[in-house]
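Batch job 17 of 40 flagged for manual review because the log was empty.
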Amino acid sequence: MKHHSFAITLALLGCVLLLVALPLAAQSPVAGTPYVWELPTGFPLPLIPEDNPMTVEKVELGRYLFYDPQLSGNGTQSCSSCHLQEKAFTDGLALSVGSTGQQTPRNAMALVNVAYNATLTWAHPELIALERQILIPMFGEFPVELGITGNEDEVLARFRDDPTYQSLFAAAYPGDADPVNFNRIVQALASFVRTLISGESPYDHYVYDRDRSALSESAQRGMAMFLSEDLECHHCHTGFNMTLSTVHANTTFFDRPFFNTGLYNLGGTGAYPPENPGIFEFTHQPRDMGKFRPPTLRNIALTGPYMHDGSIATLEEVIAFYERGGRLLVDGPFAGDGRENPYKSGFIPGFDLTEEERADLLAFLNALTDPTFTTNPLYSNPFVNGG
């Protein structure tokens, strides 16, 4: 079986839950302190699933679990190993590495405003709930990330035997006779990840707080270009979350878009590398070849390397890629001119910029960095400096 097959992995995860989670009927409704959202100006309430309401106690349990390598099968890696707060919760690698040393086929997405994502991961049209997505790094085997499969009893025993977690689980799920199970772990992790909200960048202060001194003149010129029909950037990266793939509590029309940006065009056929064909892996429709979800551009300066496979190193190179209207690879197994990809989105026409305009656009992208996000103690490792 190929290591990159998300379809196979997802097919197995339903069986995994039946084996490792307590029956829902045996678990009590969650009590606790309701979580109060303190959202940036201009941000709507996130859409929260009815069967996993937000509580302060679940969020705190989830924070501990997120940073704890005890959650991996071999006890060597945590969720935070691939999602570092100082890098806006990505890892700085082109392709992430799991707890057993296996390389994943994709770049770790930044966990920025995940509560608003219309879909999760780079290319799965039906994966729309964190409670399902979290199962992949936990139990997936192709590739292994946290590597819990085959080690379920050992992993749960670590938490059951830990006095700190005995208190945390009891507080998060006070009505459960035995709250230490994978269903409750997933709910707590999802609750914590939903709190990772970023909206205090210079751009936000300029647009939402109307502080006209928040953006430099260069960044303002870059924003005007970003929003122009010449560059087309705003069609895929729009709204308060800087991505078209956004939902919230007030959403009435659910759009879950994916785009082919012309990153590849193997042999001039329109094909992408076989381990990363985009949503074509699930739909098998030729028009879906190479289509991936547009990520948020918030904190984009911190989250390189870029693209679904980490194949573009810097923001300057990203700008050059879009300026050309697709990437040209002249040799190697992936050779081809992405500009000529027949499935490429019409929003990637290419454009011409001067050196000053490139600098202005880069200044705008840098102005999307939120310095409070990478230092917020509520998102930090509870095992370091007393949490």
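Reviewer: the log was empty due to a logging misconfiguration, but the result itself is present. Residues 6-198 form a domain with the Cytochrome Bc1 Complex; Chain D, domain 2 fold (CATH 1.10.760.10). Unflagging and moving on to job 18.
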